[in-house]
């Protein structure tokens, strides 16, 4: 008890321990903050924290139209090379569908770069089957760049209850599926 009394009755000793505690607090957290800034700087400098590195590539047309894709650059960009998209889309519906149109546009300006199915000549994709196509997109993208596309698919149901003959005319209203494709441009093929 005498020990506690002697330290609490000495005001100089009390101020010294508070000051020492404050200096230790600032030093400890200062080093931790400096370390955190160095780690963040290293991540930014290495490119790991680059947003285009974090964005995942993929093709999303919903659960009933699974898709795979590849975007690649042909030729040399400086001499007028082109960018091509190749894709494979699976019909996950429980019935056949007639694809009426398949449009691909850049997300940034929504200009249509590829009409992969001519609306005048739709084709039937049986249930569980897939179709593949590729098209030049009409612009040059450098290999390694990240490109984002909007996809617009218009189809007519060929379900036996609704449209057993799979007609594509004004009597059958088309359905629309929209989605996105995000991918890096690969060096030519």
Give the SSE layout.
Layout: H1 2-9, H2 11-46, H3 51-54, E1 58-60, E2 65-74, E3 82-91, E4 97-106, E5 112-117, E6 123-125, E7 130-136, E8 146-157, E9 175-187
Parallel strand pairs: 2-9
Antiparallel strand pairs: 1-9, 2-3, 3-7, 4-5, 4-6, 4-8, 8-9
Question: Remind me, CATH topology of the largest domain?
Answer: Immunoglobulin-like
By CATH reckoning, the class of the largest domain would read: Mainly Beta
Instruction: Give the rounded overall mean pLDDT.
Output: 81
Q: How many separate structural domains?
A: 2
Figure out the total of helices: 3
The end-to-end distance, rounded to whole angstroms, is 86 Å
Query: What proportion of the residues form beta strands (DSSP E)?
Result: 35-45%
The helix-and-strand class reads alpha+beta
Order of helices and strands: HHHEEEEEEEEE
The CATH superfamily label of the largest domain reads: ApaG domain
**pLDDT < 50 runs, ≥5 residues:** none
Q: Which architecture of the largest domain would the CATH scheme give at its second level?
A: Sandwich
Helix content: 25-40%
The number of distinct β-strands equals 9
Rg calculated over all Cα atoms: 31 Å
What overall geometry do the principal axes of the alpha carbons give?
elongated
């Amino acid at each position: 008890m005498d020990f506690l009394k002697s330290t609490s009755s000495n005001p100089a000793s009390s101020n010294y321990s508070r000051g020492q505690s404050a200096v230790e607090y600032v030093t400890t957290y200062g080093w931790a903050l400096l370390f955190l800034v160095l780690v963040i700087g290293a991540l930014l400098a290495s490119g790991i924290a680059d947003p285009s590195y974090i964005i995942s590539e993929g093709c999303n047309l919903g659960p009933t139209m699974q898709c795979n894709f590849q975007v690649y650059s042909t030729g040399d960009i400086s001499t007028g090379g082109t960018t091509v998209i190749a894709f494979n889309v699976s019909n996950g519906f429980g019935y056949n569908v007639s694809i009426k149109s398949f449009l691909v546009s850049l997300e940034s300006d929504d200009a249509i770069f590829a009409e992969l199915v001519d609306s005048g000549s739709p084709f039937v994709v049986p249930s569980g089957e897939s179709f593949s196509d590729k098209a030049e997109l009409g612009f040059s993208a450098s290999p390694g760049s990240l490109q984002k596309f909007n996809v617009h698919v218009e189809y007519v149901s060929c379900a036996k209850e609704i449209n057993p003959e799979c007609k594509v005319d004004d009597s059958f209203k088309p359905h629309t599926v929209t989605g996105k494709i995000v991918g890096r441009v690969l060096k030519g093929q």
